[in-house]
Amino acid sequence: MGYSNMERKWMFRLVFISLVCVFLMATSLNLELISSLKINSIFQIFSSRVTANETSPYFAEAEINQVPPPPAHHPVPKLAYLISGSRGDLEKLWRTLHALYHPWNYYVVHLDLESPVEERLKLASWVEEHPLFQNVGNVFVNKKSNMVTYKGPTMVANTLHACAILLKRYKDWDWFINLSASDYPLVTQDDLLYTFSDLKRELNFVEHTSRLDWKATHRAMPLIIDPGLYRTTKSQIFWVTPKRNLPTAFKLFTGSAWMILSRAFVEYCIWGWDNLPRTLLMYYSNFVSSPEFYFQTVICNTPQFIPTVVNHDMHYISWDIPPKQHPLTLSLNNTAKMIRSGAAFARKFKQDTPVLDKIDKELLGRRKGSFTPGGWCAGKPFCSKVGNPTKLKPGPGAERLQSLIATKVGDWPRQHTDDMNC
Q: Which residues of 8-44 are buried (b: 16+ CB within 10 A; e: fewer)?
């Protein structure tokens, strides 16, 4: 009897537990079904809302997956300049800055470490104390002066340094232009801005060729050391042995050290997202006259930028025949050729040479010690204040520059069939 009662109690407990489990399972299934139905209905409601309005704030993915709109460009482009100099160039640089100044543009000015401290401090104080520069805020003195050797890679490093400063400080410029204190404009900034307003802002004006000729053995194969990379006093580069072979991983290009680069290409050189700019920077660190090779080789080995290259540096430069390391110094005898060239800039000039006075008077309409006048000028004396910075008054210089660019750009993008060009 006792065993029989105990067995019945055990069976009762088992049945009770089984019923509870079945009840719980059924309840769970019902809850899942209800939850699924609710989630599906909610999802359908939200999906319909997203379909009706793709910019719905409920889903970040809806915004991420949208194609970003193209950047909005102002009808008048902005130019970003580097004007660099060395010992004894303070007065020349100051004059070039005034001839080039426009409140719509940006400027980085730099005197290298060979310049006496007094000259560098004077440049900084002149900019800081200039009422218009301080009011507009578009002239930046690079007080962290670099040692620059023209034949070595330090000039490339200094140019890239200025590019990085301009990218960090100013977000809305379109082209970068590198000049020295020995350069001078042949057109007003209104002429230049007016002409470039009609151009695709992807264009890069880089004189280049892959025909190295004597440069292959005298520049590409020798190995050099630039003391400016590790010394605070300037000295000439020196050669080391052995020589090296020409590269096979990329093709070498050469050309002018002076150029007009698009912002997109400058960003590529600074960020170097596929590593080519950094690789070439290391390769050219032991290269003779790397400023005449680096940017040409980068842009002509990057398929994305090859269609954007215009084979001209927008400079008038007079050379010996055959060319030597440095161009001829320009004088009054070169005036007619400079004007006929249609170029935007010329080099190189001595300080306060009469030809600069002639350019000021006949091409720029600039008075001594003042700015080149433009549509932006206001106040008394004239150009002492900024009126409308985007008001342009182009003159004959714009026509000359437009004619030159028309012969070089043509129908863009063009297909290059010349193996010497990229």
A: eeeeeeeeeeeeeeeeeeeeeeeeeeeeeeeeeeeee
Per residue in 311-350, is it b (16+ CB within 10 Å) or e — as a string? Answer: bbbbbbbbeeeeeeeebeebeeebbeebbebbbbbbbbbe
Under 8 Å CB-to-CB from 184, ≥6 apart: which residues? 96, 99, 345, 346, 347, 349, 356, 359
What stretches of 173-293 adopt beta strand conformation (E)?
175-180, 184-185, 204-205, 223-225, 238-240, 260-262
The closest of 301, 255, 278, 289 to 160, measured between CA atoms, is 278
pLDDT tens-digit map of 7-36: 455 455 555 556 655 555 555 444 443 344
> Hey, where are the domains in the chain?
79-416
3-class SS at 164?
helix
Strand-pair partners of 271? none
Rounded to whole angstroms, what are the CA distances from 45 to 38, 172, 223?
Answer: 11, 42, 70
pLDDT digits (tens, 9 = 90+) for 218-227: 888 888 787 7
- Rounded to a whole number of angstroms, the distance between the first and last alpha carbons of the chain is 106
- Checking if the pLDDT of 411 tops 60, the result is no
What whole-number distance in Å separates Cα of residue 316 and Cα of residue 335? 11
| 3-state DSSP assignment of residue 139 | strand
Longest CA–CA separation in the chain, Å = 136
Whole-angstrom distance, CA of residue 32 vs CA of residue 247: 67
DSSP single-letter state for residue 411? S
How far apart are the C-alpha atoms of 298 and 354, rounded to whole Å? 39
Give per-residue pLDDT as tens, 138-197: 999 999 999 898 778 999 999 999 999 999 999 999 999 999 999 999 999 999 999 999
The dihedral sign for the CA sequence 260, 262, 268, 270: positive
Q: What is the DSSP string of 285-347?
A: GG-TTGGGTHHHHHHHT-TTTGGGEES--SEEE---SS--SSPPPP-GGGHHHHHHHT-SEEE
pTM (2 d.p.):
0.81
**Position of tokens 């842009």?**
299
The neighbour count for residue 173, using CB atoms within 10 Å, is 20
C-beta atoms surrounding 221 within 10 Å = 16
Dihedral sign for Cα 245, 247, 253, 258, please. Answer: negative
